[in-house]
Protein: DUF1272 domain-containing protein
Organism: Paralysiella testudinis
Amino acid sequence: MLQLRPSCECCNKDLPPESTEARICSFECTFCAACADGILTGSCPNCGGELVARPRRPASKLVKFPASTQRVVKENGCNEAS
């Protein structure tokens, strides 16, 4: 089951479970659309995988299967990706 991490690893932008701006790789690294499409040019800086739109979990399922609250943020943002 996807963790649905709460923020972008680059800029720490909030990405709630219903966000259409969240992008993930196959390892669930999570980025906002602006960072994914901009500085990262569609590739995960951690694994090199493709960044795609994160699926949204139905609100009715979030009660039993809540999104993660653990933020993963790169210390220097994604500046090292450029």
